[in-house]
Amino acid sequence: MYPFNSTRGYRAVISTFSALGQENAFPPLSFDQRDGQMLVGFETTPEIPAGRGVCGYRVTAARVVLTVAEPDAFRYDATYDGWMTYLPGSGDSDGRPVEMYGAAFRAPWTAATYFEGDPLNPGPAFGPSTSSDVRYVYPTDFPGGVERDVSNNVRDGFDPAPFAIGRNPALAAGAFVPVDTELTFELDVDQPDVQAYLKRQLDSGRLRLLATSLQPAATGGGGGPGTGEFATFYAKEIEIAGFAARLSMTVVLTPAGDADGSGTVDFDDITTVLSRWLDTGLAGLEGDANCDGVVDFDDITEILSMWLETGP
Length: 312
Fold this sequence. Notes:
With 312 residues, the protein is of the alpha+beta class. 11% of the residues lie in helices and 21% in strands.
């Protein structure tokens, strides 16, 4: 997904790259810093039943695997790079990481209505309306349930919290990545914002994620100046078994009153409530047995009323 892609949604390979340094080099056009992005989508039903409400799930593990489609095209970096390392005069000798975020949508599109081939931004792919901050699908780290756009975090001067970074323990930092190498994105399900995002996705029956990077695009054009060291991954259109994006998840279906997400309402839930007493946040935070976003005495009451209930 990038503005000058006229075949989005149908390519056999997909690249992630940045427009750093040329975001506004071709007026009136402008480009998001995270320019080339890879949207991956999975239907999570019927394996995981939808419609249980966000408090009906606890994700204990989630992993996405992408397979590299170009030989020695970028260097391996398994660590997050802060936004200041992208400023002129800074750098990272190991290269730049590939990161994964949630996917948020701008009107008129939603996760339920946006499909392959739908437009990235208002107007034609090569039209004068190409602009930053307007793409219909954008990466979010979902802080506190807010669909914050992280596409231009260097410009805006903040460090987002990636859901995951692509890693492969067989690779050395700074080494060029061979073709057909798998990068595994272990989503940080212990991070409350990631957990909240995944619960909402499971409730809807579909999971959408974006792989992005600030790796430099080739010199010239809207992609920005740089070495051209950016990742390209196989899409399902490659039609080779095992090469398309793959998802694996471990999910507990939790009953009402299950404050610790174990699948059973018992004394451990009371302990969890007491350890998180008066915490507030999104509905379903740890200790929130009654799903109202506050850990308080009402949660103890809910636990007692559902004592020894188990998930389906």
